[in-house]
Amino acid sequence: MIPILFFQRLPIVALSLTSFCSPDLFASDSDLRFYTREVRIQTSDYTGKLTLCPLYDDRELAITTRWDDSNPRHYRMLKLMGDYGFHGTLYMNHGMNGEKSLDFDQLKALDADLGAHSMTHPRLATNLSINQMFWEVAEIRAILESERDQPINSYCFSDGNFRNRARPFMQGEIAKSLQRVGYTHNVYARFAESIPDELDAVSTVSPISAGDKNPSMKKFDQRFEQIMSDPNEWYAEAPCVSIGVHVWLYNDESWGEMEEIYKKYANRENWWYCDQSDYAAYQKLLKHTSWAVTDRKDNEVTYEIRVPYASDLGSNSPLSLRFSVPNSRVFVDGELVMARSDDEGTIFHLLPPDFAQIPREISYFRNLTNQPSQPAGSASETSLRAWLYLGANDQLQLQISNRSSVSVEEVRLSYILPPKYENPLAENLVGIASGETLKLERPLKVIGSGEYLWGVPYLLCQIDYLANGQAERVFVSTFDQAVQPPYEAGFRDDSFVSGIFTDLSISERAAELSEPGAAKLASLAWYGPTEMERLMYNRYVLATDLRLSDELESAPSGERYYFIIRELVSDQGGVLVSRSFARLKGVYLNGRKVPKSERGNIPIQPGLNRFVTIHKVNNRTDRKRDYFTYEVRSH
After folding, report:
1. Beta strand 319-323 with 345-350: parallel, antiparallel or unpaired?
2. What region holds the NodB homology domain (predicted)?
3. For the residues of 1-21, what is the DSSP string, one character each?
4. pLDDT tens for each residue of 373-429
5. Is 0.70 surpassed by the pTM of this model?
6. Which residues pair with 63 in a beta bridge?
7. Domains, the chain, ranges and CATH?
8. CB 250: neighbour CB atoms within 10 A?
């Protein structure tokens, strides 16, 4: 199992934030590879037309499922789905909040399809620095692919968080990062609809929830009838219905109701029961497949069809085509293939050849501390091993070794770099002989400044190739040096978390503590922002788990509490907003206790403000870092 990485290198200072955006920096579709197929059709009418089927086998509707997080109940859900012919995708984290990842051997045995759900289940737009966000969405792909030996082409946001009012630019940064990493599908339709024109479009689904804890056939039927009553609202953009979202079923009654839903909606002859990876790949096939007529004569027409590699799309999903004349015979590269006819024509499928199929073996090599040399004895199930190192002056060094007994061919290097750097187009190599080691160096172009530099940038390279005519893949990664953001008055950098206390009478001093300029209580320890906190999160987030890590391990049992003090300067005044305030033990501002009825929007005055909150230690204090976020809005 690959451990979760947290950052520990020493900081240097960075510059102020600037923005950038250039269409040619994010064009992942321009990196697609293509193969061609000759399709010859014997027909009673050679003037017939060839078209792509909007869904596999020209079905009228695609239906799939989506189940989030690394939940051990997924095993039971997969078996239940299989009993009724349903397919779907598990959107997984890796070590979310200390939980163990699922058993990948068992997932393989169940033929589970996987999607990415971040490394640690954070709120990407609300909580993280740009570089931490990039690491969350990038490394999870490399880990899941190498553990499952299956490409990952789809993404699902933890907590559905892809935008934030306090940091509106993050939505665009997230969209750019997901494209750089290689995700072509997203389960959140609102996100997919908001992709800017300079980025590639992503496919999406039309969701229906059966109920996370207590599935209801009645509610599911109502929702299904509702969306089917007006398909014009969704079908053209997302002709795929997705059932989900969480497997929080705790009793046999809930599982029984879920089974009844599957039973009722199973075996529809004209539905495509697919997983999200197959659906996503099919949408890319529709967008990028093209053809030309190369010969047309009596009773026969020949096409040359240009199709993207399945390994670039993330699935071996076949492409379905329709020729408008029924009872035609179809030959692909000279071989007769199976086809079916209806009143509107003949339908046939194109499968990717072996060399264009998804990789069967995938490995991942991690350079956690950016060491120049790969440790001896690094195991690999793939033919190639690799090592990535970022040298001085942003010189990226890639070493690739062929330790197998065969030469590898059609080597393709795809760099997946954080927004700090310009992302280069893929690079092709002829091949690597058995026993040969290549050492390549590429200068990287820095195009970002300020927050694009802060934190610990994560760099990834994807190496695709053929070994004995079969596709394999290797990921290799490293980290740039850590860069601490400059001090910023207010919010996190002027905040302190007290040591843990059990005597609640201490809380009576909270109003006094909230007076601007008041001294902190000498009887308690006080902790300012940590280096790791400032590397990982943005200025609005107070990572109390990091500040109190030692005390949380040694504090006595029973009810335990702590203060958070924040100071901020407001030029014009405004209101404090947080979804956390309503459930806190106490909130105090500028010497006054704020009643619960006023915590929705707390007025702040121009100039210096100090507010104090009282928190109760619970089982989430040491892991839910988004608990203490807040923002200031103008009146």
Report:
1. antiparallel
2. 67-167
3. -PPPP---PPP-B--------
4. 988 777 788 999 999 999 999 999 999 999 999 999 999 999 999 999 999 989 999
5. yes
6. 241, 273
7. 61-269 (3.20.20.370), 359-479 (2.60.40.10), 491-633 (2.60.120)
8. 11
